[in-house]
Inverse folding.
């Protein structure tokens, strides 16, 4: 049973560029959430996708956008990269309908470095 | 707004020592509480959870009790092993109406190092 997979594992970009990160949820899951984890900090919620729409959003600027495909996989896009966007980006999947109790299954993350 | 505060690390213990990692929270309503663990180079894994006051979550020898009166969810283990070395995150979800899950608020993490 494949868990959450993310690609690429590492990425180096230059300030001002755009980046796309990809995530495939755990088999049977239909909801994908994205988190940003700065070095030495806890993850911060970016947004969540369900039924191909953004359902919840954290306190992140519009430079951060996403997409969910019919097969439930998801992309995170970041435009106009800033040095402060350097972080580990985590994708988490879950099954809708369990509300606040639903445990998340996390991928190993994509390490983004902006130079 | 909702928030989670954990004791600062790193915490260094000898094998078989007793572990406590403190976690307190601020939330409206009745949140669900979680402990996640992050091993080096890996994503987060759910360690245990509790969904209502006085619930005790447990897994792999770790325990935590949801204390609404003290707004706490401290993580404990009676005898740690070298393999428990990791970063531990306390997190909450919900507490308000209409929460659809998936939106966790994390503490800053506590690094645990267990020496043989």
């Amino acid at each position: 049973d494949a868990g959450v997979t993310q690609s690429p594992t590492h990425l180096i970009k230059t300030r001002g560029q755009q980046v796309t990160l990809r995530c495939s949820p755990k088999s049977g899951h239909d909801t994908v959430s994205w988190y940003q984890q700065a070095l030495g900090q806890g993850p911060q919620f970016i947004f969540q996708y369900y039924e191909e729409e953004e359902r919840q959003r954290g306190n992140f600027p519009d430079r951060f956008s996403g997409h969910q495909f019919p097969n439930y996989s998801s992309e995170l896009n970041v435009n106009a990269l800033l040095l402060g966007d350097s972080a580990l980006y985590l994708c988490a999947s879950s099954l809708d309908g369990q509300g606040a109790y639903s445990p998340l299954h996390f991928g190993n993350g994509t390490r983004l470095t902006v130079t | 707004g909702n928030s989670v505060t954990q004791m600062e690390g790193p915490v260094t213990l000898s094998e078989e020592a007793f572990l406590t990692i403190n976690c307190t929270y601020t939330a409206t309503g009745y949140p669900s509480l979680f402990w996640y663990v992050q091993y080096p180079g890996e994503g987060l894994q759910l360690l245990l959870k509790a969904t209502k006051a006085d619930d005790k979550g447990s897994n792999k020898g770790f325990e935590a009790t949801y204390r609404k009166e003290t707004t706490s969810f401290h993580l404990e283990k009676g005898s740690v092993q070298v393999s428990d070395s990791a970063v531990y995150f306390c997190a909450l979800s919900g507490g308000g109406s209409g929460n659809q899950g998936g939106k966790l608020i994390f503490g800053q993490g506590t690094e645990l190092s267990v020496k043989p």
Q: What stands out?
A: Chain B has a mean pLDDT of 91. The interface with chain A takes residues 4, 31-32, 34, 36, 41-46, 49, 51, 89, 91, 93-95, 99-109 of chain B (CB under 8 Å). Residues 82 and 114 of chain B are 5 Å apart (CA to CA). The first strand of chain B starts at residue 3 and ends at 6.
